[in-house]
Amino acid sequence: MLKDYENKLDEIISEIGYRSLKLISIVDISYQRYMQYKEILPYYKNIENEGIVLYG
Q1: Fewer CB within 10 Å of terminal CB in the chain, N or C?
Q2: Nearest by Cα to 29 from 38, 42, 17, 20
Q3: d(CA 33, CA 10)
């Protein structure tokens, strides 16, 4: 089931990237984990400052 979810995300992101000619990365983490570490970990800080949230 998880593999199907991952494959579907790959299909969606590939289509969006192809249409917009942009490189898009998916970060699939829980909201709780993100909130816990967004002020601590540099990677999560960058997501907070530079990321664009897409809801599907």
Answers
A1: N
A2: 38
A3: 22
Report pLDDT for 21.
92
The one-digit pLDDT tens for each residue of the chain (56 residues) are 878 888 888 898 899 889 999 888 777 788 899 899 999 999 889 888 887 766 65
Cα(19)–Cα(12) distance, integer angstroms: 11
CA 50/CA 47 separation, integer angstroms? 5
Is pTM beyond 0.85? Reply is: no
b/e 30-54 (16+ beta carbons within 10 angstroms → b):
eeeeeeeeeeeeeebeebeeeeeee
